[in-house]
Structures are given as C-alpha cells and as structure tokens.
Amino acid sequence: MIVSTEDRVLSTARGDVFTRRWRVRDSRKSPIVLMHDSLGCVDLWRDFPERLAAATGHDVVAYDRLGYGRSARHPGDWSNRFIRDEAKHFFPPVRHALDIEHFIALGHSVGGIMAASLAAHHPNHCRALITIAALAFVEDRTLQGIRDTQAAFAEPGQLERLRKYHGDKAEWILWAWINTWLSNSYATWTIEESAPSFACPLLAIHGREDEYGSLDHLHRVAALGSGSVQKLPLDGCQHVPHREQPETVIEAIAQFLRTSVG
Predict the structure, then answer these.
(1) pLDDT above 90 covers what percent of the chain?
(2) Domains of the chain, earliest start first
(3) Residue 218 in contact with residue 128, Cβ under 8 Å?
(4) Which residue among 34, 52, 56, 154 is the one 20 to 30 A from 182 at the CA level?
C-alpha cells in the first residue's frame, strides 16, 4: 500500500501548528488523528504512523500541540484543564483547517486522555477511539514514575534529548509535565473530568509493567465507554506499547478498525 507524507503549518488564532499527514492513495476512510504524550511531538512517533497507515488503509494525521515540536510556543494560559482545553479550544481549528469531518482518535499516555476527551467532546465527528497507556487518575506508581524521570533528566546532557525535538521549548515542556502531575491541585484529578463518557467504539491498550500506571487505568478508561469496548493488556510491556510491541499493537488496531468502523 502506497503511503506518502504531507507537512503543513497551520495558522491559528493562538499560534502556528505543525501537522503531518501520512496519505494512503485513494483512501476514502476516516483519518486516524494521533495525540502525542507529554514530552512528545510528531517526529517522536517515528515510523509508527506510516506503518499504521499501511496496515489499516486509513490516512494518519499528527500535529505538534502548541508548545511542542515545530509548533509555536504555548499561548500561556496553561492550567489543570489543559486536557479538556485541547479538545475544546485547540483541536477544532486544526480539524477545520485540515478539512476533517469524521476521524478516529488515537492517543498515547496523556495523549490517550486527550483522545478520549476528543471522543467525549466531538461525539458527532469521532467514529472510534484508541487509547495507548492512557492514565485515568493519579496513583503512587504515577507519581514515582514521574519522579524517576525527573531524576533522569537531571543527569548531564539528558535535557538535550528534548531540545533535539523541541528546541528552546524543551525546558518548559519538561516542567509543565512534572509540575502539573506532582502538584497538590492535580492529586485528585480523574479522567472523568476530561472525558465524562463516550459512545464510539473503544480499543484500550495498556502494558502490564507500565511504570506510570497499573492496569486499573485500563479498566477505568474502558468503563467510560457506552459502546463496544475492547481491552488489550500486554504482557512484558511498559509505557510505550507501540514502540515496544509495534506488530502486536498495529495488528490489534487494524483488526479493531476492520470490525468497528469498516
């Protein structure tokens, strides 16, 4: 299956947004929209989008959220509502500029929560939801995983890993993630605040050894769906299933879309 890429920079009221689309020739299927994690960006999806497009026959679209990658700096109104704000305020201009009517939402980690929020806030447009390692609440494992990553980034040269992809926005990205999830004001956050419920078909994927969240998160996400729900816990897998077990993840997504969307 032939897949080509198309990069665009969209001008929005809050700043320029970098997007990339992996196009499948002659595809008439709803595109899969990718939502990246707290330290991620378009480039950090690596070869996953291209492989996903080839396996499913769906175009795949990814964008750098404002403050990340090649998009403009975040406009500065960051708050504990950042997940819901993405769905309600930042995603719609991207969807409209790319002329996307219906879509499949797929997100990793905090992007998984955002994908669920897209499904909840755009029920007439989101045809299916796929979450990978989505977090549903703040537990001790979540906090310890973030503290361990914070300590790792304190080592000499580690911040350069982020600067490679985010430039001079890297430090803001790191501390926005750390300070939000470790704050007292976020301790009682739950996914229901960002995605109260959704009716579209759901595939929820989670590694059993995820260093940021137990399988309780998988079940909590699944409980929000009122339509068909599939859960895929993965043995021997941590927080990045699509990188650790790509063949399994891609095949599961392809099968899910064949049966749930067509």
Answers:
(1) 95
(2) 3-137+190-260 (3.40.50.1820)
(3) no
(4) 34
- CB count within 10 Å of CB 229 equals 15
Q: How does residue 257 score in pLDDT terms, banded at 50, 70 and 90?
A: very high
| Look-up of token digits 């956050």 | 189
What's the full length of the chain, in residues? 262
pLDDT of 78 reads 81
- Tokens 């997007």: give the residue: 19
pLDDT at position 5 over 80: yes
pLDDT in tens, 179-237: 999 999 999 999 999 999 999 999 999 999 999 999 999 999 999 999 999 999 999 99
Non-local (6+) Cβ contacts of 140 within 8 A are none
Joined together, the tokens standing for residue 229 give 């729900």
CA distance 9 to 138: 34
Contact between 169 and 73 under an 8 Å Cβ cutoff? The reply is yes
Dihedral angle, C-alpha 218, 57, 24, 103, nearest 10 °: -50
Beta-carbon contacts of residue 222 (< 8 Å; ≥ 6 apart):
202, 204, 229, 231
Phi-psi region of 65 (alpha: psi -120 to 50; beta: other; left: phi over 0): beta
- Distant-in-sequence, close-in-space partners of 211: CB < 8 Å, separation ≥ 6: 141, 145, 148, 238, 239
